[in-house]
Design goal:
single chain; Immunoglobulin-like; 36 strands
């Protein structure tokens, strides 16, 4: 099949690009977006009847406004805190200078109520990223503080439309208000705080999306929940994966026919609408007994095109330094604990503590290399230290009964192996999902100096001790 030119593609599409054709709160404008982010209490309609739900949002919306910049742009944003507690903002997945990483007590002082903090950095990598607090994140993200951050590549994939789905959940009582059980030790040491209302772009899931036969859609997916892991399947359709965690990959189908998306993880898909006018199909979360996330219906309008398009071209890679495994320095991190795990007696913020004290008094349930750390403790010892420019090969050993999406700040890494089996494509990621009793082998160049968080993105696990730092010297 001959390659379609851009002019032919747009002519046969019969439509200009449209962005985020769901709620206005997450519609990506062509401009760069606001210069100020204001986290504050807000209202959100999460159930069809009854009162609106009290939430926290950026600039009055959940998700917050889409921030969109071209690759290489200088980003400058002021965060003005209108919450009843201190906060920060972390730019998840972006390789920013350490002082701009948004981690309280590690890279900056918390932004107190009524105060402001100015962030400035260069958008080095193109891709789908996001922003969220890193102060009491198990509560602040759970209340609705998150938003998309899109960095456009110079030559994007040619599509007819672009959509973004921000997936999350909320735990509501009968009065439609959020259940105020944030900080429960059972969540810290168990599976995390799972909501009872699924949300897509801040509205109840099972949304309806109309498409046209023959059109090609770029779909940006983000899991912004604090604990829920999605397993997303597209009935009778085979989308292509073109990016994981903002980093391009050779286009390929969904492994096993479904997409595992842990908290903090993103995936860009290319969805070719191969159905006929009048047909419909479901996008399902197979982890939640087949819950329908979206009902996709085909318009009865004439097809955009009648021939099948060739697979999408790969996106140009970002300027990430390639690990040299022949010179790699090997390290490991061992994860223990949890309410179902064996006792793990270790250090708390660098000091020896007994198990019953760790669990009952400190609300710490996990250890990393035998140490539990309070969220962003000021006095702690980093887990590991790296020389600047070293290639690091990191073996993660999950000796627990739970899954853990592990996130590294300031760097992306190649996933070499899962459960000691090589991973096809060795994808670049910033968050890797480890299964219970599983392992992961990662490699990256420690080229971004500073002290960087490494933690589970089930945010209750992070608050329960599965949080530490790596230091890149220099």
């Amino acid at each position: 099949m001959t390659k379609t030119t851009r002019r032919e593609f747009l002519r046969t599409a019969g439509a200009t690009l449209t962005m985020l054709a769901l709620p206005p709160a997450v519609r990506a404008a062509q401009e760069q977006g606001p210069k100020v982010l204001r986290p504050a209490p807000a209202q959100l309609k999460l159930r069809p009847s009854g009162a609106a739900t009290g939430v926290w949002g950026f600039n009055g919306s959940v998700p917050g406004p889409v921030l969109r910049y071209p690759q290489g742009a200088d980003v400058a944003l002021s965060v003005q805190n209108a919450l009843p507690q201190a906060t920060t903002v972390h730019w998840h997945g972006l390789r920013v200078p350490n002082a701009m990483d948004g981690v309280p007590q590690v890279t900056q002082a918390p932004i107190e109520p009524g105060a402001r903090f100015d962030y400035a950095f260069k958008a080095e990598d193109a891709g789908t990223f996001w922003y969220h607090p890193h102060q009491a994140s198990f509560e602040q993200v759970g209340r609705g503080l998150y938003g998309l951050l899109i960095i456009d590549e110079p030559k994007p994939i040619e599509v007819d439309r672009e959509l973004a789905w921000v997936l999350s959940d909320f735990k509501l009582g009968r009065d439609n208000q959020q259940v105020n059980d944030f900080g429960d030790v059972a969540h810290f040491g168990g599976g995390g705080r799972i909501g009872n209302v699924l949300a897509l772009n801040g509205r109840p899931a099972a949304r309806r999306l109309e498409v046209r036969s023959g059109e090609r859609i770029r779909l940006r997916l983000l899991n912004a929940s604090t604990a829920r892991i999605f397993l997303i399947a597209f009935e009778n359709h085979q989308p292509y994966v073109v990016s994981y965690d903002g980093q391009p990959i050779e286009p390929h189908g969904l492994p096993g026919g479904a997409l595992a998306l842990g908290p903090g993880m993103r995936t860009d898909l290319i969805l070719d609408c191969t159905g006929a006018p009048g047909e419909s199909f479901s996008v399902l979360d197979r982890r939640d007994k087949g819950a329908e996330l979206v009902r996709v219906t085909y318009s009865k309008k004439p097809p955009v095109r009648t021939r099948r398009l060739p697979p999408p071209e790969p996106i140009a890679p970002n300027p990430l330094p390639e690990p040299d495994l022949s010179k790699a320095v090997d390290h490991f991190v061992l994860f223990e604990g949890g309410l179902l795990g064996k006792p793990a007696i270790g250090l708390v913020d660098g000091k020896p503590r007994k198990l019953h004290e760790i669990m009952s008094e400190q609300k710490l349930t996990w250890t990393m290399n035998y140490s539990a750390q309070h969220e962003h403790a000021q006095m702690h010892e980093p887990l590991l230290r790296f020389g600047r420019g070293e290639t690091i090969r990191l073996k993660l050993i999950n000796d627990t009964e739970f899954e853990h999406p592990m996130h590294l700040h300031g760097h992306s890494f190649r996933v070499l192996a899962l459960n000691d089996r090589p991973v096809r494509y060795r994808p670049w990621r910033d968050t890797v999902l480890m299964g219970p009793r599983g392992t992961a082998e990662l490699a990256f160049v420690a080229d971004n100096p500073g002290e960087w968080m490494f933690h589970c993105h089930i945010l209750e696990h992070a608050a329960g001790g599965m949080m530490g730092t790596f230091v890149v010297e220099g």
